[in-house]
Give the backbone structure.
Amino acid sequence: MKHAFYDTLNRQAEALLSGEDDLVAAMANFSALLNEHMDDLNWVGFYIRREDTLVLGPFQGKVACTRIPWGKGVCGTAAATDTTQRVADVHQFDGHIACDSASNSEIVVPVRHQGRVIAVLDIDSPSFSRFDETDQAGLETLVRTLEKALFGQ
């Protein structure tokens, strides 16, 4: 059932992003799409790489941290290691940066261009263990769709 949800969401993302090559516009609509269709979230959006810092990009949700140091917190760790971070309980993540005290679980997926991390997709939930392996695979596929739309990768 969840696989079908992500297949449908990915088709919607492909249609939404078709012909769009502006990073901010694509990320804004992508965030809105996920926020509209995914349940049990309190924040979804992007942090964009600016040298050794991640800077807040388009998002849906409450006010957020504006800058995250490279390698710090869940987002910075995902960026620095170029690997998805799926955290069942953010309060147990060493160095977690609490932008919203209501967040209890998080998934962060790197966005790449020419083999380099240029941003991360960050999704938070007020529920513990909100994201599983199927969510991770689905969101990684969605991010590849975003990369392909923007960069032709």
